[in-house]
What we know:
The protein is of the alpha/beta class. The protein contains 14 helices and 15 strands.
Amino acid sequence: MLLPSMYRIRQKVDPPVVTDVAGAVRAEIGKLNLGSRIAPGARVAVTGGSRGVANIATILRTTCDCLKELGGQPFIVPAMGSHGGATAEGQLKVLARYGVTPESMAAPILSSMDTVEIGRMPWGFPVYVDKHACEADHIVLVNRIKPHTNYRAHVESGLMKMLVIGLGKHQGAIVAHRASVDVGLPRAIPEVARFSLSKLPVLFGLGTLENVRHQTAKIEAVLPDTLEETEARLLQEAWTLLGRIPFDFLHLLIVDEMGKEISGTGMDPNVLGRLYFFPNEEPKNPRYIRILIRDLTEKTAGNAVGMGLADFATRRLADKINFHYTYTNALTGLSPMRSKMPIIFETDREAIEGALKTIGLTEPPDAKVARIKNTLDLEYLYASEALLPEIEERADLEIVGGPHPFTFTAQGDLADGAN
């Protein structure tokens, strides 16, 4: 098959970035004047998540150091719902892949799937909290604030969700996602988070924002009484920083890799324009007829949740899938559609050619095709010749190389590897 020529393009961005992450964490915590709030020797649970937050090891280590200087005894609890196969050992491994270990943190990590029910919502929702966190004198919430992959609301993925689903462990995550069918996450997350804030000894929250380069763009500490309104404001900032593919329509989108550290769904639905999440309606824009995913990241450890957002995948990806991790995550999140197997091709060449046979009357050389490394790394990407008129009309795009033909190894895989 004759394939389109590709051009390497760059989206011109100049995003904000925090150059001294540890210093910013110290400054933000210092603004809260916590000295009188922490008794000497108080045990403080600090949340550690699983989303591949930029500089998370530095952020957590500095937070623990600050708490020690204030007289507290910090420890980290994995706050990641069902991730890591919904086991204590698996969640320790997830944190370790991000450089978060007892040694690097100079603080214990207490990992358990045990929870405590701290009450029930009027609509029957039992509120679960990690046992170690519940027994602590204080809780510190640390998380990235960003648009959620399932729903739209004034608070989405961030500190409030960490309180409900992350600290809820497997039990809490299951109940929260079940509630999404009857109550809806836009209502459930803030209402349950408010209830938890009223019952738990939350000391403060530390929210981060990230830019299109997956760099820390902002760090802000907030006391619990203003946590919701602060997170809502930061979410609006996060939307402005979100990376996007600069084309509304494509015949084929090729994604080199997916993984849990890139998005909770492996690939960000906000970038793909596909939700596949009941009862939400599908977005009308962007519209990508076919999506091909080529590989899993090493850090995702076989968790391929979200692969169902693609139409086609490679044997390379299929052979790396840990179905226990993937299906545990998918069932907990009530998103079986997102984790169905795509059509599997043995090689990249077969996958690309197979995909281009399904785009309608457009001949492959004339197809609008884009290729990205992943849905988080979007500053540089490849675009086919058919997209040149759109590129040339936009001041925020520049061509940095090409035209390049698709080149394959003797085995049929893309010769240049990842984008």
